[in-house]
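During the reporting period, our protein records have gained a structure token line. A sample record is set out beneath this paragraph:
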Amino acid sequence: MITLPARIVAVVCLAGLASIGRADVAVLADVGTEWAEASGADTAGEAVRATANPTSASRPSAARPNLAADQRIEWAARLRDLYSRPASEWPAPHIDSTVTWIEIGLLPKPSHPDTNPYSKEKADLGRMLFFDPRLSAGGQMACASCHDPDLGWADGRTTSFGLDRRPLTRNAPTVLNAAFQQKFFWDGRAESLEVQARHVMLNPAEMAGSEATVGKTLSELPAYRRGFAAAFGCEQITFDRIGQALATYERTLVGGHSRFDAFLRGHPDSLDDRQIIGLHLYRTQARCMNCHHGPAFSDGNLHNLGLSYYGRKFEDLGAYKTTGQAEDVGKFRTPTLRNIANTGPYMHNGLFELPGVINMYNAGMPTLRRKEHQAEDPLFPTKSPLLKPLSLSKQDMSDLLAFLDALSEPPRRIRPPELP
């Protein structure tokens, strides 16, 4: 482990700063020679430039040096003070110039669309429907079958089971904080929770419901007739109304009680030293903010991470199956990182655990190489240019994982409603 001179502990790790003040530049110049020796830079000037402008070298060649234990303590204290200030005073994140980003922060109050305004009656009806397997063929599956509140509103499986316990091809994403999404499903094919619910109910591989059958079944239950009348003004039961009720309930499933949220609300000791260092890495050297930004920790967009398994087992062409556009091959929606430690396994195919995901990002994610027979293949996927090798050390990756764990929601047991 490289031990850095105490004088530069507070500055060396500011490799996360895209812009620094004159005083910082002066300190950097003063200690440039020492940092050059520690970092392996050829000259003090090179070390200063690399620290002040970390994005100038897009492919770092060696892992970042670790700090000694006492230096980590001092560095964490300085970061705690820095990030306890208003977000406008935080270091500028490592963001590519093509990215329009929003600062991470507290979740806002969820909004409901004008086409489906909120009412308590509608949310209560949606809650009942969410846990009711009678929305599916044969009464086998409820929404909660794949989005279990005890499992982070996901299901903990590699890929979910569909009707008759047939395995599906994708991992079930959490519906917690879905109110802040703009696209739904891994391939982004639904643009609202209402549409997403209808897709699932009608999908023959998932709930395989029939509007006529489900409507008849629920209409025979006085409690549902009363519920629809209270929510919509009449007892008529349709898939559109079921979707609206489900979406209204799902928009009430909002977190915002993590240790990170407590930190932002003025409790600086809510994050331990590893987590506060991990926060800084998240925003800077680890480049997470290029896709996972904003209060929901997601840009809501589709990206190709090199995990389409193109031409191999587990191939999934992502958004291309919906759009038919070659540039969408292998693109998937950016998931939220809120409560991420409680919603594994990860990625659209559920093949990864969180440490492995961090390792892959550190390597820049897989880059597919064309084989001879693919030389002219117009659908050959292209990985996002936002992905670059990071050269994070094992300590960095451990700190980053610690910060992601600080996004976890405290355990909250949700008792399903009594169904009619």
Remarks:
- Confidence is low (pLDDT under 50) at residues 1-60.
